Protein backbone atom coordinates (compact mmCIF):
# COMPACT_ATOMS: atom_id res chain seq x y z
CA UNK A 1 0.00 0.00 0.00
CA UNK A 2 1.33 3.39 -0.99
CA UNK A 3 1.80 5.90 1.83
CA UNK A 4 -0.25 9.06 1.38
CA UNK A 5 1.72 12.19 0.59
CA UNK A 6 1.59 14.63 3.44
CA UNK A 7 1.30 18.27 2.49
CA UNK A 8 1.45 21.23 4.80
CA UNK A 9 1.32 24.99 4.48
CA UNK A 10 4.43 26.76 5.65
CA UNK A 11 4.38 30.50 6.31
CA UNK A 12 7.38 32.53 5.28
CA UNK A 13 7.19 35.13 8.02
CA UNK A 14 9.77 37.35 6.38
CA UNK A 15 7.43 37.87 3.40
CA UNK A 16 4.09 38.25 5.23
CA UNK A 17 2.84 41.83 5.12
CA UNK A 18 -0.21 41.19 7.27
CA UNK A 19 -2.62 42.02 4.42
CA UNK A 20 -5.05 39.23 5.50
CA UNK A 21 -5.77 38.30 1.87
CA UNK A 22 -5.15 34.65 2.83
CA UNK A 23 -8.07 34.91 5.24
CA UNK A 24 -10.29 36.57 2.64
CA UNK A 25 -9.58 33.99 -0.05
CA UNK A 26 -10.09 31.21 2.52
CA UNK A 27 -13.54 32.58 3.28
CA UNK A 28 -14.30 32.76 -0.44
CA UNK A 29 -13.11 29.20 -1.03
CA UNK A 30 -15.49 27.93 1.66
CA UNK A 31 -18.46 29.98 0.51
CA UNK A 32 -20.81 29.79 -2.44
CA UNK A 33 -20.32 33.53 -2.97
CA UNK A 34 -17.13 34.23 -4.94
CA UNK A 35 -17.48 38.02 -5.28
CA UNK A 36 -15.29 39.29 -2.45
CA UNK A 37 -17.25 42.52 -1.91
CA UNK A 38 -20.60 40.71 -1.75
CA UNK A 39 -19.01 38.10 0.49
CA UNK A 40 -18.08 40.71 3.07
CA UNK A 41 -21.60 42.09 3.12
CA UNK A 42 -23.11 38.65 3.74
CA UNK A 43 -24.44 38.00 7.22
CA UNK A 44 -23.05 34.82 8.76
CA UNK A 45 -20.30 34.43 6.18
CA UNK A 46 -17.89 31.53 6.74
CA UNK A 47 -14.97 32.04 9.08
CA UNK A 48 -11.45 31.93 7.69
CA UNK A 49 -9.70 28.68 8.49
CA UNK A 50 -6.38 30.46 8.53
CA UNK A 51 -5.54 33.32 10.82
CA UNK A 52 -2.92 36.01 10.45
CA UNK A 53 -1.50 36.70 13.89
CA UNK A 54 -0.32 40.21 14.56
CA UNK A 55 1.14 41.88 17.56
CA UNK A 56 0.75 45.60 17.91
CA UNK A 57 3.80 47.60 18.68
CA UNK A 58 5.94 45.00 17.01
CA UNK A 59 5.40 44.09 13.41
CA UNK A 60 5.05 40.34 13.76
CA UNK A 61 2.74 38.53 11.40
CA UNK A 62 2.35 35.02 10.26
CA UNK A 63 -0.42 32.82 9.00
CA UNK A 64 -1.62 30.25 11.49
CA UNK A 65 -3.36 27.12 10.26
CA UNK A 66 -3.81 23.44 11.15
CA UNK A 67 -0.62 21.37 11.09
CA UNK A 68 -2.55 18.11 10.55
CA UNK A 69 -0.48 16.50 13.32
CA UNK A 70 0.69 12.89 13.14
CA UNK A 71 -0.71 12.34 16.64
CA UNK A 72 -3.71 14.67 16.65
CA UNK A 73 -4.97 15.45 20.14
CA UNK A 74 -8.01 17.11 18.59
CA UNK A 75 -9.29 13.81 17.20
CA UNK A 76 -8.80 12.10 20.57
CA UNK A 77 -10.63 14.93 22.35
CA UNK A 78 -13.53 15.15 19.88
CA UNK A 79 -16.58 13.80 21.69
CA UNK A 80 -18.80 13.61 18.64
CA UNK A 81 -16.44 12.04 16.11
CA UNK A 82 -16.59 15.15 13.95
CA UNK A 83 -12.81 15.35 13.63
CA UNK A 84 -11.34 12.47 11.68
CA UNK A 85 -8.18 11.67 9.77
CA UNK A 86 -8.56 11.35 6.02
CA UNK A 87 -6.13 8.44 5.62
CA UNK A 88 -5.76 8.90 1.87
CA UNK A 89 -4.58 12.51 2.13
CA UNK A 90 -3.34 12.47 5.73
CA UNK A 91 -5.55 15.43 6.62
CA UNK A 92 -7.64 16.10 9.69
CA UNK A 93 -11.13 16.90 8.51
CA UNK A 94 -14.01 18.36 10.52
CA UNK A 95 -17.47 17.08 9.66
CA UNK A 96 -19.50 20.18 10.46
CA UNK A 97 -22.71 18.16 10.62
CA UNK A 98 -21.31 16.08 13.49
CA UNK A 99 -19.61 18.90 15.45
CA UNK A 100 -21.49 19.77 18.63
CA UNK A 101 -19.40 22.83 19.48
CA UNK A 102 -17.96 21.51 22.74
CA UNK A 103 -14.58 23.19 21.95
CA UNK A 104 -12.57 20.26 23.32
CA UNK A 105 -10.49 20.31 20.14
CA UNK A 106 -9.71 24.00 20.65
CA UNK A 107 -8.52 23.34 24.18
CA UNK A 108 -6.08 20.57 23.20
CA UNK A 109 -4.68 21.94 19.92
CA UNK A 110 -1.04 22.79 20.71
CA UNK A 111 -0.91 25.33 17.87
CA UNK A 112 -4.11 27.24 18.51
CA UNK A 113 -5.10 26.43 14.94
CA UNK A 114 -8.73 25.47 15.59
CA UNK A 115 -11.16 28.32 16.01
CA UNK A 116 -14.76 28.75 17.01
CA UNK A 117 -17.12 29.50 14.16
CA UNK A 118 -19.55 31.57 16.16
CA UNK A 119 -22.05 31.71 13.30
CA UNK A 120 -22.59 27.97 13.29
CA UNK A 121 -21.33 27.20 16.83
CA UNK A 122 -18.90 24.64 15.44
CA UNK A 123 -15.15 24.17 15.19
CA UNK A 124 -13.44 25.71 12.19
CA UNK A 125 -10.07 24.52 10.92
CA UNK A 126 -7.96 24.39 7.78
CA UNK A 127 -8.75 21.53 5.42
CA UNK A 128 -6.04 22.48 2.90
CA UNK A 129 -8.91 23.19 0.51
CA UNK A 130 -9.13 19.44 -0.04
CA UNK A 131 -11.56 19.87 -2.93
CA UNK A 132 -9.54 22.59 -4.72
CA UNK A 133 -6.16 20.90 -4.75
CA UNK A 134 -4.19 24.06 -4.00
CA UNK A 135 -5.24 25.95 -0.87
CA UNK A 136 -6.85 29.29 -1.71
CA UNK A 137 -4.59 31.08 0.78
CA UNK A 138 -1.44 29.76 -0.89
CA UNK A 139 -2.70 30.40 -4.41
CA UNK A 140 -3.72 34.00 -3.73
CA UNK A 141 -1.03 35.32 -1.40
CA UNK A 142 0.35 38.30 -3.36
CA UNK A 143 3.71 38.09 -1.63
CA UNK A 144 4.08 34.29 -1.83
CA UNK A 145 4.36 34.20 1.95
CA UNK A 146 2.59 30.83 2.11
CA UNK A 147 3.98 27.70 0.58
CA UNK A 148 2.43 24.23 0.20
CA UNK A 149 5.11 21.59 0.62
CA UNK A 150 5.26 17.83 0.83
CA UNK A 151 6.60 16.64 4.17
Write a structural description.
With 151 residues, the chain is of the alpha+beta class. It is 20% helix and 23% strand. The chain has five helices and eight strands; from the N terminus they run βααββαββαββαβ. The chain has helices at 21-29, 36-41, 73-77, 104-108, 136-140, and strands at 7-11, 51-55, 60-64, 83-86, 91-94, 115-117, 122-124, 146-150. The strands form four sheets. It has a two-stranded antiparallel ribbon. A two-stranded antiparallel sheet has the order 2-3. It has a two-stranded antiparallel sheet with strand order 4-5. A hairpin with a 4-residue loop joins β2 and β3.
State the main characteristics.
151 residues, alpha+beta, two-stranded antiparallel sheet, two-stranded antiparallel ribbon, 5 helices, 20% helix, globular
